[in-house]
């Protein structure tokens, strides 16, 4: 059973494009690879055929997973986001109390997370530690490197 996947409209469009590519380009290419390998002789000792069949199986699993993800999507709109507390799609500025460094993160779904762009997953340790907090709150977040203390400085969209 799949859980709800909260994403933006743009990410849904990217997922649909990827699914379309897999169905219209990758799937026929996999079928051609199997056909070409089949023409090369005995299937019992044909490693190329086995590899093509395995690649097709992996592709079909990816298609099924993407279809399942798309079916469980809920679209998030920044206009409806409550900025009184940290939630998904909010941009939160935090102060690391140990280093006195300010960092701004946007809390997003796992599918949209990209640390280089300052987007952290709602399911990451920092994302979970910030959820529900309000400006002025101090939170302790357990990360693989230890425990970090953050103070919430600002919450915007």
From TrEMBL:
The keyword Protein biosynthesis applies. The keyword Transcription regulation applies. InterPro entries: GreA/GreB_C_sf (IPR036953), TF_GreA/GreB_CS (IPR018151), Tscrpt_elong_fac_GreA (IPR006359), Tscrpt_elong_fac_GreA/B (IPR028624), Tscrpt_elong_fac_GreA/B_C (IPR001437), Tscrpt_elong_fac_GreA/B_fam (IPR023459), Tscrpt_elong_fac_GreA/B_N (IPR022691), Tscrpt_elong_fac_GreA/B_N_sf (IPR036805). Gene3D superfamilies: Transcription elongation factor, GreA/GreB, C-terminal domain (3.10.50.30), Transcription elongation factor, GreA/GreB, N-terminal domain (1.10.287.180). GO terms for molecular function: translation elongation factor activity. Keywords: DNA-binding, Elongation factor, Protein biosynthesis, Transcription, Transcription regulation. SUPFAM superfamilies: FKBP-like, GreA transcript cleavage protein, N-terminal domain. Belongs to the GreA/GreB family. HAMAP family: GreA_GreB. This is Transcription elongation factor GreA. It comes from Niastella soli. The gene is greA.
């Amino acid at each position: 059973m799949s859980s709800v996947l909260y994403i933006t409209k743009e990410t849904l469009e990217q997922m649909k494009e990827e699914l379309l590519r897999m169905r219209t380009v990758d799937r026929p290419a996999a079928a051609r690879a199997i056909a070409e390998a089949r023409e090369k002789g005995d299937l019992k000792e044909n490693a190329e055929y086995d590899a093509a069949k395995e690649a097709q199986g992996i592709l079909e699993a990816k298609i099924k997973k993407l279809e399942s993800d798309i079916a469980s999507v809920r679209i998030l709109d920044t206009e409806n986001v409550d900025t009184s507390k940290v939630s998904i799609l909010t941009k939160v500025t935090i102060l690391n109390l140990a280093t006195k460094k300010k960092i701004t993160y946007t809390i997003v779904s796992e599918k949209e997370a990209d640390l280089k762009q300052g987007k952290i997953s709602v399911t990451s340790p920092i994302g979970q530690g910030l959820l529900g907090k309000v400006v002025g709150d101090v939170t302790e977040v357990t990360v693989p490197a230890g425990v970090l203390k953050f103070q919430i400085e600002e919450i915007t969209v």
